[in-house]
Design a protein that fits this description.
By secondary structure, this protein is an alpha+beta fold. It has two domains: 247 residues, Bira Bifunctional Protein, Domain 2 (BirA Bifunctional Protein, domain 2), CATH 3.30.930; 92 residues, Anticodon-binding domain (Rossmann fold, 3-Layer(aba) Sandwich), CATH 3.40.50.800. 30% of the residues lie in helices and 29% in strands. It is built from twelve helices and 23 strands. It has a five-stranded mixed beta barrel. A five-stranded mixed beta sheet has the order 20-19-21-22-23, with helices on both faces. Strands 4-6-5 form a three-stranded antiparallel beta sheet. Helix 2 crosses helix 6. The longest helix has 21 residues. It is elongated and about 80 Å long. The relative contact order is 0.13. The structure holds adenosine-5'-triphosphate and magnesium ion. Magnesium ion binds next to strand 13.
Length: 417
């Protein structure tokens, strides 16, 4: 992608927000705050979010089928489960204020999660024991009227989530699948560059189940969760469930909940009378579980954990492009031509390049922009570099002068210097 005349623009004038991710993502031109807790994903940010969601999609495709449910749903669905009254972050919408169409005075819920939608859909199949288990998932925008949206992408009122729902004949079958999903989540967080420091935590069931749930907590100073480690049982607990004794005897660490999985049991199937026919021909309640990952929150956490004074440091797997190619031509057509040629060579080799070809922008400004945006590699071509170019890893100081062929090899091999 050529920088010149694209809508990719850093915005170094953007204000200092309450968190590193909001500040750097705004200054870097990844997101734009449309209102408190609600963000536009600009072209660079949308590429990052898509990369995160694609990794999750690849792993989810091994355990379920993707689909898409609506965001606005009738309140009646939420009344069925009694969560219309009990869930305090529900956004509601009404058509009644549309004076030109008085006929439609329906009320809606802007979905914060989709158990109320998927359960009646799953029910239409009227499964027998042979049809179970199955699982479906979606990656979608969610709405929650959070009392205090904060920390940029970590707590929004409109945000992105992957949610998977699984359906089982027995509690044992649910439990087996649920444990497998813990491994799948581990793979996902490893691939997203959060593996080393994301722990599985025992937590309460929240609005979903009276029982327990499991959270995946990424260590993060700005995260809102406090996690305690019980050395005797080798189990991590969220502050809400940790015993008074554990809290008195151990130091918690700050974390952000990037995923949460819930064994729902028969709570939702009972509310919707969702049953399957067992071997003896009797109707039995279906056992359910749900599994979330906050994809936009993951993006925020990656920035909280990967940055320095100059800007963002993206993990390769989710960086919007792999190489920032900076042409410092100052009117030198030879330099501009060499940069163009290198851009062609990289892109035709399948490397994703953001090419800063802006003719009128000063060298210092371009280099600052490259650090702020934080792609894994920076390649500089100038009058000084002759036939070669300067290659630098975003997270390292070392600069290497290499020829084009070697540069191509280096950026294509994952573990190069
Ligand atoms: P929290 O405890 O942080 O409020 P939650 O337990 O209510 O989250 P879930 O219902 O488990 O959230 O949602 C699944 C995932 O969606 C969470 O693990 C989190 O990563 C993400 N998420 C939840 N609320 C928000 C939000 N307001 N902004 C961004 N991501 C969110
Ligand atoms: Mg949760």
């Amino acid at each position: 992608m050529r920088y010149h005349n694209s809508f990719i623009k850093t915005n170094k004038q953007a204000k200092q927000y309450d968190s590193v991710n909001a500040t750097l993502l705004s200054k870097g031109g990844f997101i734009h705050q449309t209102m408190a807790g609600v963000y536009t994903f600009l072209p660079l940010g949308w590429r990052v979010l898509n990369k995160i969601e694609d990794i999750i999609r690849q792993e989810m495709d091994t355990v379920g089928a993707e689909m898409l449910m609506p965001s606005i749903v009738p309140t009646a669905l939420w009344e069925k489960t009694d969560r219309f009254k009990s869930v305090d972050i529900l956004f509601q919408a009404s058509a009644a204020n549309d004076l030109s169409r008085k006929k439609n005075d329906a009320r809606y819920v802007l979905s914060p999660t989709h158990e109320e939608v998927i359960t009646p859909i799953a029910q239409t199949v009227k499964p027998s024991y042979k049809d179970l288990p199955f699982a479906v998932y979606q990656i979608q925008t969610k709405f929650r009227n959070e009392e205090r949206p904060k920390s940029g992408l970590l707590r929004g009122r409109e945000f992105r989530m992957k949610d998977l729902y699984s359906f089982h004949a027995t509690a044992d079958d649910l439990s087996e699948y649920y444990d497998h999903l813990k491994d799948v989540y581990r793979t996902i967080f490893n691939r997203l560059g959060l593996g080393d420091d994301t722990v599985l935590t025992l937590a309460s069931g929240g609005d979903f189940t009276d029982d327990y749930s499991h959270e995946f907590n990424a260590r993060c100073e700005t995260g809102e969760d406090l996690v305690y480690y019980d050395t005797k049982q080798a189990v991590y607990y969220n502050k809400e469930v940790a015993s008074a004794e554990l809290m008195a005897n151990s130091e918690p660490f700050a974390a952000s909940e990037v995923g949460n999985i819930f064994p729902l049991g028969t709570k939702f199937s009972k509310a919707f009378s969702y049953t399957y026919t067992d071997k003896a021909g009797r109707a039995q309640p279906v056992h359910m579980a749900s599994y979330g990952i906050g994809t936009s929150r993951v993006m925020g956490v990656l920035v909280e954990r990967g940055h320095d004074d100059q800007g963002i440091i993206w993990p390769e797997a989710v960086a919007p492009y792999q190489v920032q190619l900076v042409a410092l031509s100052s009117g030198d057509t030879g330099v501009a031509q060499r940069a163009d040629d290198f851009y062609e060579a990289l892109t035709s080799a399948g490397v994703e390049v953001l090419y800063d070809d802006r003719p009128e922008v000063a060298a210092g400004e371009k280099l600052k922009d490259a650090d702020l945006i934080g792609l894994p590699w920076r390649a500089v071509i100038s009058a000084k570099t002759g036939e070669r170019l300067e290659l630098k890893r975003r997270a390292k100081e070392e600069v290497k002068l290499v020829n084009v062929t070697d540069a191509l090899k280096v950026v294509q091999s994952a573990d190069a210097y």
